[in-house]
C-alpha cells in the first residue's frame, strides 16, 4: 500500500545541523498519531552553544492503511531511507566531510538505534527518562493491582525496592 513519507530540513535547520550537530550528539525521538491519519513524526535535535535544543529535521510518514496502530507500523528501513535523504541534503562541509554526529540518543526503540547506526555509523545511548518510563510500565504490568491489604502492602515494598534498584543502576552507569 502507498504511504506518505516526508522529510523537512529548512536552510536554518541545515545551518544548525552543521553548527551544532556535526561531531556532537544527535537526539531523535518519535511521536505517534499526530493526526487522524495515523501519521508518525520523528524529530532530530541538536544542542546549541546556548544549551537550547534546535530541530534539524522532521520526518513524517503515515502508517499503512491496514495498520492497527501507528507506533507498531514502521520499520527501520523507513527511518534509514529518510535519514539518508537528510544526510545527502546536508552535503559536505568545506573540508569535504559528510555530516556525522558523535553519537545518537533515542528512547528505547531498536529501530531508531539501528537507523542511526546504519546511516551515520554511530552508536546510540538510551534516554534515562524513557528507560525509567519503560521500567515503570513493566513493573506495573508484572506486579498488577488490586487484592487485599496484604497484597497491596507487599506490592508497595516491591515497588520501593525496584525503584531503589533502578536508581542504583542508573547512578552506576552515569
Which secondary structure elements does this structure contain, and how are they paired or packed?
Layout: E1 5-8, H1 11-21, E2 26-31, E3 39-47, E4 53-62, H2 76-90, E5 104-106, H3 110-120, E6 124-126, H4 128-143, H5 149-173
Parallel strand pairs: 2-5, 5-6
Antiparallel strand pairs: 1-4, 2-3, 3-4
Helix pairs in contact: 2-3, 4-5
Q: What do these coordinates show?
A:
With 174 residues, the protein is of the alpha/beta class. It contains five helices and six strands; from the N terminus they run βαβββαβαβαα. The chain has helices at residues 11-21, 76-90, 110-120, 128-143, 149-173, and strands spanning 5-8, 26-31, 39-47, 53-62, 104-106, 124-126. The chain has a six-stranded mixed beta sheet with strand order 1-4-3-2-5-6. A hairpin with a 7-residue loop joins β2 and β3. α2 (76-90) packs parallel to α3 and α4 packs antiparallel against α5. The N and C termini lie far apart (44 Å).
Brief descriptors of the model:
single chain, 174 residues, alpha/beta, six-stranded mixed beta sheet, 5 helices, 6 strands, globular
Compose a concise summary of this entry.
This protein is an alpha/beta fold. The protein has five helices and six strands, in the order βαβββαβαβαα.
Amino acid at each position: 500500500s502507498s504511504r506518505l513519507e516526508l522529510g523537512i530540513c529548512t536552510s536554518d535547520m541545515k545551518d544548525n545541523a552543521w553548527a551544532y550537530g556535526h561531531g556532537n550528539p544527535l537526539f531523535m525521538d518519535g511521536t505517534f498519531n499526530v493526526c487522524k491519519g495515523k501519521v508518525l513524526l520523528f524529530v532530530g535535535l541538536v544542542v546549541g552553544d546556548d544549551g537550547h535544543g534546535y530541530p534539524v529535521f522532521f520526518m513524517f510518514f503515515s502508517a499503512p492503511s491496514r495498520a492497527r496502530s501507528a507506533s507498531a507500523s514502521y520499520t527501520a528501513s523507513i527511518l534509514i531511507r529518510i535519514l539518508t535523504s537528510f544526510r545527502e541534503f546536508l552535503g559536505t562541509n568545506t573540508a569535504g566531510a559528510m555530516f556525522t554526529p558523535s553519537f545518537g540518543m533515542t528512547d528505547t526503540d531498536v529501530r531508531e538505534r539501528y537507523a542511526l547506526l546504519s546511516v551515520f555509523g554511530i552508536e546510540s545511548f538510551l534516554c534515562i527518562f524513557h528507560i525509567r518510563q519503560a521500567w515503570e510500565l513493566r513493573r506495573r504490568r508484572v506486579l498488577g493491582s488490586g487484592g487485599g491489604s496484604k497484597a497491596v502492602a507487599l506490592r508497595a515494598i516491591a515497588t520501593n525496592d525496584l525503584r531503589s534498584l533502578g536508581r542504583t543502576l542508573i547512578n552506576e552507569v552515569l
